[in-house]
Structures are given as C-alpha cells and as structure tokens.
Design a protein that fits this description.
The chain has 270 residues and is mainly β. The protein has one helix and 20 strands. It folds into two domains: 133 residues, Elongation Factor Tu (Ef-tu), domain 3 (Beta Barrel), CATH 2.40.30.200; 127 residues, Sandwich (Jelly Rolls), CATH 2.60.120. Strand 16 and strand 17 form a beta hairpin.
Length: 270
C-alpha cells in the first residue's frame, strides 16, 4: 500500500512534503477530519414556546493522521519520533494538506501525543491529532491563483474542471462563482476576501452584489487602485462589505472607468 503524502507549510516558509524530511521508515497510512462541530445560538422569550435560531458557528474540529514507525533499532525509532515532533509542533498554527485531498488544507495546532514503542520493539502505530482552528478546510491557493494550481484540483470542489471560473474582470457587470460549501462573509465570520479594484473614477465607486444586496462604496474618487481586504480598505469607504453566496453572485460596479477588478479568496469546504 502506497503511503499518503503529507504537505506542511509554516508561516513565511515554503510548503514541503513530509517524506522529504523524515526517514523512509516513517509511514503515513491515512488522514481524515472529523465532522463539522456546529454550535447554534438561540433567542428565547419568557412565556413563549421554544426559541428562535439567531446564529450558527462552526467550531474547532479534529484532524487525524494515522502513522507507523518501523524502526530497525531503538535509536532509529527515537530519531523518527523526534522528527515528527520537530516538524508538526510549533508556537503557531501550521497549514497541513495530504495527497488524499490535495486542494483541501487545514490550519492546525497539534494535540499532545506520546509516541512510545513497546519494550524490545522499535516499531509503533500511532495517531497524530490536531485542532482545526477554523472548523473547516480551505484551498491552499486563492481564487485568482486557480489557473496555476490545476494539478491540485480534485473532485468534490464544486468546479467544472473543463471550464474553470475566472476571478479577474474587465467589465462593470460580471459574475463571481463561489464554489465553497458556505457563503464567504468577511465581517460576521471573518472570512478571507479581497477586492482589488484598478481603474479611475470622477467620483464615488460602488460595488454591489445584486444576488444578496450587500455592497460597499468609496467615499471619493479612485485615482489608481482601491483594495478592500476583509473589512479594511486602502482608502476611505462607506464601511460596507460584500458577502459571496454559495454559487453564482452577480456583481454590478458603478462609477469606475478602465475597469480591472480581481476578487481573491480561498474556497472553503467541510
């Protein structure tokens, strides 16, 4: 049986394959994420039956990597055990993905695990478990990087592999495809979403998602470019924001000339 490859990316560093830095006697058997952990909030009123659903949050879940160390002697075992600790344990979250689902990564923090072999034996099977901070998975690339990451694409992403969507637009009316399992909301759920707007205007520029009514607008003209990164703008704007519904979102831009707009976000999956 072929080993599962694990890819690790730490902040400010290039991604690397775990097999390139550990012994060939260290094997990854499989990897999987537990079900989404749903936490609902309800509003109740004294004297009334039941409650009204006000919000649902996807809390941390668990990601598991099943491993096996086949050391030829005790010293081999200890070296491989220490390699595992060295590459997974950190003071910050680490991005992990596997060859089983190359386009679905998670930000994780490891749970404590004691890797101990039985007396007189230098091999051991064990599980590495991690807290998934966001409660869901994300693509290890952004929407506007889709065309250069086709080798990582997989089934179950909500994409037509033969007709991939684009995320750079030269017109003032266009459609943004959100293939994620959920809406992208940079305000309520702090999802990563960037609008990079290049062009010129004589006054206010408004961007509206006519699919759900969300919008934002600059408070003055654009001389070269404007970026809305989540809910942080590169110049003054009206403090609005756009939510991308699942599927197709029809966008209308007014007041902008020589339009060049990039919509950049990672796709999110359970």
């Amino acid at each position: 049986m072929r080993d599962v490859e694990v890819y690790i990316k730490k902040r400010g560093q290039a991604e690397f394959a775990l097999s390139s830095v550990v012994s060939k006697d260290f094997h990854v058997l499989t990897a999987y994420m537990n079900s989404p952990q749903i936490t609902p909030s309800y509003e109740t009123m004294a004297g009334s039956d039941g409650g009204r659903l006000t919000n649902i949050v996807f809390n941390q879940t668990t990601f598991t990597i099943e491993c096996f160390i086949n050391g030829r002697q005790k010293s081999d075992f200890r070296l491989m055990r220490d390699e595992v600790y060295r590459h997974f344990y950190s003071r910050e979250a680490v991005q992990v993905r596997t060859s089983l689902e190359p386009s679905k990564a998670v930000y994780v923090v490891p749970k404590p695990v004691d890797i101990i072999s039985e007396k007189g034996y230098s091999g051991v099977a064990f599980n590495l478990q991690f807290d998934v901070l966001e409660g869901y998975r994300h693509t290890p690339y952004r929407s506007d990087e889709l065309s250069t990451n086709q080798s990582k694409l997989q089934y179950g992403m909500g994409l037509d592999i033969e007709n991939l969507p684009i995320y750079n637009f030269k017109a003032n009316d266009f459609v943004v495809n959100n293939p994620s399992d959920m809406a992208i909301d940079p305000y309520i759920h702090r999802h990563d979403l960037k609008w990079i707007i290049r062009g010129t205007s004589d006054g206010i520029v408004t961007v509206k998602n006519t699919t759900n009514g969300t919008s934002f607008a600059t408070t003055g003209k654009i001389s070269n470019s404007f970026t809305l990164d989540g809910i942080t703008g590169s110049q003054a704007w009206d403090w609005g924001h756009i939510v991308l519904d699942k599927g197709q979102n029809t966008i209308k831009v007014t007041g902008l000339k020589s339009t060049d707009i990039t919509v950049s976000f990672p796709f999110l999956y359970f």
